[in-house]
Amino acid sequence: MTRKICITSVDGHTGFAIAELILQRREFSRKVDAVVGLTLDPDAERVQVLKGLGVTIVPHLPGRVRDMVKTLKDTGCDTICLVPPAHKNKHDISVELVEAAKKAGVLNVCLISSVGCDYAEKKKQPRLREFIELETLVLQAKGDTSTPTGTSPCVIRAGFYAENLLLYAPQAKEEGMLPLPIGEEHKFAPVALGDVANVAAHVLTGKGKHGFDDKHRGQMMIVTGPMLCAGNELAAAASKALKTEMGFENISESEARRVLKAQSESDQSEQQYILEYYSLVREGKTNYISTTAFHDVTGEHPTEPEEFFGLYKEELRPAKKAKRDHK
């Protein structure tokens, strides 16, 4: 059985990481005939990297389901990894992709959703709650015998990316602090982006008689990091990895918004998503870990916080203060 995979939003962190991992790790690449990358920004640096790895790049022009159906049919893909884009119209673009995949007869559909969407409230965390509707649209196809997409759906609820903590690298380097608006008591379990990509790559390349491997088909996979952390525990893990003292500062949401606006390259909708997730932490709705899917799918152990901080020590380690000159 051949496998030709279309991955959306390859100009973003998640889509890029999944595509790159599939092509660079032999256990995945040997199961795949081709990878197609759908992108809203064909000139993006990540897109050029994927081109060099052999990904066929297709410009994504949202607006009409009929046109998207033709685009998907033209790719010849039997599998789609639907990564909602970092875009102000993320919801509408993603809904269009789900509908187009159904009408194009794509057999296997894997949606990258978000941990916490089931706890989010529409008025308080609208960007998070949007993922519930996308999950519903993907899974509804399971009961629709008129479309092949009902045969082999999978949803991966990705945890809050630990990489989002790197947005505070300037404060870590200059002040030795992690400033987060998460309160003093409640916890969350950040997950490394590479771990999410690892699970997705296993799902997308796994094969069974109905499409995806029967171990993955129809699954709702919740993927968090392996350790629940309050702010001071994150700082302790960072201190160990960086071999220097790091502190935690509980900042206000308005201050966090200012920091994100100044230091993040992501668009306003993604910044809002990050702030909404932090609000879930403050409400005590993220006090759990879920690593069973990761263990079952990959056979490996997810990245521990100390290990994560170690990977990015150059970006985070505080610079030594210059000694004062004495005359």
From TrEMBL:
The keyword Ion transport does not apply. It comes from the Eukaryota. Residues 2-266 form the NmrA-like domain. Pfam families: NmrA. Signal peptide: none annotated. Belongs to the NmrA-type oxidoreductase family. This is NmrA-like domain-containing protein.
